[in-house]
Amino acid sequence: METLSENRCFGGVQGVYRHRSDACSCDMTFGLFLPEETGDGPVPLLWYLSGLTCTHENAMTKAGAQAWAADHGIALCFPDTSPRGEGVADDPEYDMGQGAGFYLNATQKPWTPHFRMWDYLAEELPTILDNGFAIDPDRQAITGHSMGGHGALTLAMSLPGRFRSVSAFSPICNPTDSDWGRKQFEGYLGSVEAGRAHDASLLMRESGFDGPVLVDVGTRDDFWDLLRMDTLADAMTARRQQGQLRLQEGYDHSYFFVSSFIADHLAFHAEALWA
Amino acid sequence: METLSENRCFGGVQGVYRHRSDACSCDMTFGLFLPEETGDGPVPLLWYLSGLTCTHENAMTKAGAQAWAADHGIALCFPDTSPRGEGVADDPEYDMGQGAGFYLNATQKPWTPHFRMWDYLAEELPTILDNGFAIDPDRQAITGHSMGGHGALTLAMSLPGRFRSVSAFSPICNPTDSDWGRKQFEGYLGSVEAGRAHDASLLMRESGFDGPVLVDVGTRDDFWDLLRMDTLADAMTARRQQGQLRLQEGYDHSYFFVSSFIADHLAFHAEALWA
Fold first, then answer.
1. Rounded to whole angstroms, how far apart are CA atoms A155 and A157?
2. Between A64, A220, A250, which is nearest B64 by CB?
3. Are B176 and B199 in contact (CB under 8 A)?
4. pTM for the full model?
5. Which ranges of chain A would DSSP assign to H, the alpha helix?
6. Contacts of B14 in chain A (CB under 8 A)
7. What is the interface pTM, i.e. ipTM, of the complex?
8. At a CB cut-off of 8 Å and minimum separation 6, what does A32 contact?
9. Could you read off the pLDDT tens digit of each residue along chain A, which spans 275 residues?
């Protein structure tokens, strides 16, 4: 593993690291914020999954999460959103290919063998963090924005016991019934049907999450119709899922929205992680 | 004036606006955060001047200042760092020309007539804000990073009564005796000597600032030798300037440093602005 940068930040260290990924068969880069408390032993970890077009860097520089992670003594991991590199397939559109991995394992060419973000995040990167940093694997939580909210919700519900809490900003909630989802499932998985295991609203109806859920969305979200918050709301109420769905008046899909409520999300996860 | 974007942010609005600048003879873009309290009447204003290579956007997206500005009910203005555009002179190096205006009025070709950032910030933009937004011109403060710290300190000391408080992150403190300054003064003003009126350490010795000063710098600043913090420290102690100079252990020159201490700076200015 190569250290690309380490900057002192809120008493801790914001690092950026690159490593060879077996899951994605390419080099992958991630950001990791370790709070000052890491010096005293393993700390809880909050994953932050990013949205379409993002790299490991967007949330790391724009969400303002480190301030509150430092307050709560929690580490933050900012993975990339897809495999990358010259030999990795891509698409001319922003919503497919590099920067748009959709947090799944592709089964279709040209996306195999690199597009295996599910395995990367469910297995490979957690092991790397556990081996290389003072992270407590028994205290993990997950959040994300937009496509990353989709990733956070689907990983959390599909890996019972892994995460103590899950939250999301403006998540893609029902990709099997949205233009943010149908195209990608057809491309990566061969059919929309094959994407049902990666649909947060369907997972919520089927299994839900054994812990608290927090979802924020702006009432002026630029992509409101694509997110399908209605289906997640239906699914949460149908199963009486412990959680909160908050519609924030006047906010949009941007990082100005995410940063406005990141303190709430860190406090929410801290309560679960330190319980 | 054209509205390029307005995003709801911490209960207020983060706007980006473009206007024709008479001072710089080109279009100029600035960011303006207005807290929720703006709806009730004029609010105090904190200027944030950015460093080399930056636009209006860097601090607006990476410093995390809006969280605390909202808490304190203070507006934030993020001006650009130079005139820009096709007809505007530039330099192949990052430290001269577009993105490197050094907050002065150039007197030498090819930098005249566009490079007049001093007039732009001392006169034109304040008038535009005063006319167009609910800003209280009697409650202004100023801060900045690196070249912007130089701008904040020199504007504050050269315009007595304008600002109630001044702060800076990693400022260029003694440009007449640094490679960040000598080249630029020779180019923009014709001589290093002509830059003496834009040297924070010289101004501190000559006149100081009638109010509190806060300066933060990281002990691992990548550009330590160029900043010449020693000369500002000497000047502040020589005149017993009211203020604080803080050397922050292990921090560097990046926005991870700025964001780590932005809350302190907002609290510092809020105390002066609301006094």
1. 6
2. A64
3. yes
4. 0.91
5. 57-62, 65-72, 117-119, 125-132, 147-158, 182-189, 200-206, 224-227, 229-239, 255-273
6. 256
7. 0.83
8. A14, A15, A16, A17, A75, A76, A77, A78, A129, A133
9. 999 999 999 999 999 999 999 999 999 999 999 999 998 999 999 999 999 999 999 999 999 999 999 999 999 999 999 999 999 999 999 999 999 999 999 999 999 999 999 999 999 999 999 999 999 999 999 999 999 999 999 999 999 999 999 999 999 999 999 999 999 999 999 999 999 999 999 999 999 999 999 999 999 999 999 999 999 999 999 999 999 999 999 999 999 999 999 999 999 999 999 99
Q: Identify the contact set of chain B against chain A, taking CB-CB distances under 8 A.
A: 7-11, 14, 61-62, 64, 66-67, 218, 220, 250-252, 254-257, 259-260, 263
Tokens 């420290």 locate to: B233
| Active-site pick, B72, B253, B265, B269 | B253
Identify residue B22 by its one-letter amino acid code. D
Provide the 3-class DSSP secondary structure of residue B173: coil
Phi, psi for A134 (deg, rounded to 5): -80, 70
Give which of A9, A38, A169 to mutate to test B binding, by max B Cβ within 10 Å. A9
Closest A-chain CA to B253:
A7
The CA distance from A254 to A263, in Å, is 16
Distance CA B136, CA B253 (A): 32
For an interface test with B, which of A8, A60, A170, A220 has the most B Cβ atoms less than 10 Å from its Cβ?
Answer: A8
Nearest-by-Cβ selection for A62 from B61, B218, B254: B61
B256 → closest Cβ in A9, A250, A260: A9
Any idea what DSSP says for residue A253?
S
Question: Could you tell me how many CB contacts below 8 A there are between chain A and chain B?
Answer: 66
| Dihedral Cα A190, A192, A193, A196, nearest 10 deg | 120
Residue B40 burial class via C-beta count within 10 angstroms: exposed 0-12, middle 13-18, buried 19 and up: exposed
Side-by-side strand order, sheet with B26-34: B2-9, B12-21, B26-34, B75-79, B43-49, B135-144, B166-169, B213-218, B243-248
Beta bridge partners of A35: none
Q: What is the C-alpha separation between B59 and A180, in angstroms, rounded?
A: 31
- Cite the active site residues of A: 146, 221, 253
Q: Is B146 a catalytic residue?
A: yes
Torsion of CA A195, A197, A200, A203, to 10 degrees: 150
